[in-house]
Automatic annotation (TrEMBL):
Protein species of origin: Moraxella cuniculi DSM 21768
Pfam families cross-referenced by the UniProt entry: Ubie_methyltran (PF01209)
EC number: 2.1.1.163, 2.1.1.201
Phylogenetic placement of the source organism: Bacteria, Pseudomonadati, Pseudomonadota, Gammaproteobacteria, Moraxellales
Catalytic activity: a 2-methoxy-6-(all-trans-polyprenyl)benzene-1,4-diol + S-adenosyl-L-methionine = a 5-methoxy-2-methyl-3-(all-trans-polyprenyl)benzene-1,4-diol + S-adenosyl-L-homocysteine + H(+); a 2-demethylmenaquinol + S-adenosyl-L-methionine = a menaquinol + S-adenosyl-L-homocysteine + H(+)
Protein name, per record: Ubiquinone/menaquinone biosynthesis C-methyltransferase UbiE
Gene3D superfamilies the UniProt entry points to: Vaccinia Virus protein VP39
UniProt-listed SUPFAM superfamilies: S-adenosyl-L-methionine-dependent methyltransferases
Keyword Methyltransferase among UniProt keywords: yes
């Protein structure tokens, strides 16, 4: 890749490396216990979770696409294709893909919005963002910006900036999901749409038991064999179980101000697509 080509994708809004935007260190007066949250099945301090999640995705970034194909038997591509069909994305729109990682959705959005539109691929993890940036540059996507951003604040982005906001297999890794949903609502234009694609809760008990067995045996083993990292994939399995179920997430979206919220179960509820809209002023 030549320097001139690379310069086409230089985005003045790319944040510097280091502590992600919006991440603050909690100040704890002596004797006051710091709030805790979950990291998989572990209980950790809220201020520690982002760093722990960052370690996981820095470790798996280079093998992320390969592992997704192996773990889902390629079905994740069908899940994403269905989610995209619900976005209503069209020419000229501005799209924000949060926790966009290796750029699966952003690549499609780049084509759909065309020259008159713009796509922002954001991620809190620099290693994941770099994988996505390289992939989309090589694919010739010249209407995409790449921004290091914290989903809980989305600080680089102004209010009412985007027609569509998506987050695919990323919300479960966010420490404060309610805060993130509020930030997503803030950056959407009135009438704009949020789409959340995420692992959820199987609706059939036999499927749920089989899925548990697969997740906690096969996933760490594949992680060890393919990525030499069983621990990260153990966390991914645990994080799925700790994520809110379909109805709970729908209620969280409504509490954040979204209207006309609904969801669609895929593969028996192993994955769900949630959709909500920002009301017209």
């Amino acid at each position: 890749m030549t320097d001139n080509t690379d310069n086409q994708f230089t985005n003045p809004n790319i944040l510097p490396t280091g502590t992600p935007q919006g991440q603050s260190t909690l100040q704890n007066p002596e004797g006051v216990a710091e709030e805790t949250t979950h990291f998989g099945y572990q209980t950790v301090k809220k201020s520690e979770k982002q760093a722990k999640v960052a370690e996981v995705f820095s470790s798996v970034a280079r093998k992320y696409d390969v592992m997704n194909d192996l773990m889902s038997f390629g079905i994740h591509r069908l899940w994403k294709r269905y989610a995209i069909s619900l976005t209503g994305v069209r020419s000229g729109q501005r799209v924000l893909d949060i926790a966009g990682g290796t750029g699966d959705l952003a690549k499609v959005f780049s084509r759909e919005v065309g020259r008159s539109g713009r796509v922002v691929l954001s991620d809190i993890n620099e290693a994941m963002l770099e994988v996505g940036r390289t992939r989309l540059i090589n694919a010739g996507c010249n209407n995409v910006d790449f921004v290091l951003a914290n989903a809980e604040t989305l600080e680089p982005f102004a209010d009412n900036s985007f027609d569509l906001v998506t987050i695919s297999f990323g919300l479960r890794n966010v420490t404060d999901k309610d805060k993130a949903l509020l930030a997503m609502h803030r950056v959407l234009k009135p009438g704009g749409r949020l789409l959340v694609l995420e692992f959820s809760k199987p609706v059939f008990e036999p499927l749920s038991k089989a899925y548990d067995l697969y997740s906690f045996t096969a996933l760490p083993l594949m992680g060890k064999l393919v990525a030499n990292d069983a621990e990260s994939y153990q966390y991914l399995a645990e994080s799925i179980r700790m994520h809110p179920d379909q109805q709970t997430l729908k209620a969280m979206m409504e509490n954040a101000g979204f209207v006309n919220c609904d969801y669609h179960n895929l593969t028996g509820g192993i994955v769900a697509v949630h959709r909500g809209f920002k009301a017209h002023s």
